[in-house]
């Protein structure tokens, strides 16, 4: 899996991979979380583990790029 840092554009939604140790095909629910001092929010997600990761949406609410 790519471990390079993500760069989130200002005022954007970006699909991001999140590593998971759960077995392939496991359904997961992620509840909304605030990260980076309220500038980044992970949206609510229901997704299935594929290739050791799940996909989620990161929302950058700031006017700056965030890495």
Q: Quote the distance from N terminus to C terminus.
A: 18 Å
For the sheet with most strands, the description reads: 4 strands, antiparallel
Total helices: the number is: 0
Instruction: Indicate the percent of residues in helices.
Output: under 10%
Radius of gyration: 12 Å
Derived from helix and strand composition plus strand pairing, the structural class reads mainly beta
Total individual domains? 1
Strand proportion: 35-45%
**Low-confidence blocks of residues:** none
The quaternary organization reads as single chain
**Which descriptor suits the 3D outline?**
globular
User: Would you tell me the overall average pLDDT?
Assistant: 91
From N to C, what is the helix and strand string? EEEEEE
SS elements, strand count: 6
Which strand order does the major sheet show? 1-6-4-3
Q: How does this structure look, described?
A:
- The protein has one domain.
- Helices cover 0% and strands 45% of the residues.
- It is built from no helices and 6 strands.
- It has a 4-stranded antiparallel β-sheet, with no helix packed on it. A two-stranded antiparallel sheet has the order 2-5.
- The protein is globular and about 35 Å long.
């Amino acid at each position: 899996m790519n471990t390079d840092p993500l760069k989130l554009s200002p005022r954007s939604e970006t699909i991001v991979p999140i590593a998971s140790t759960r077995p392939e095909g496991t359904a997961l629910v992620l509840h909304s979380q605030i990260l980076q001092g309220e500038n980044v929010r992970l949206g609510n997600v229901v997704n299935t583990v594929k290739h050791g990761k799940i996909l989620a949406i990161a929302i950058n609410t700031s006017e700056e790029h965030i890495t």
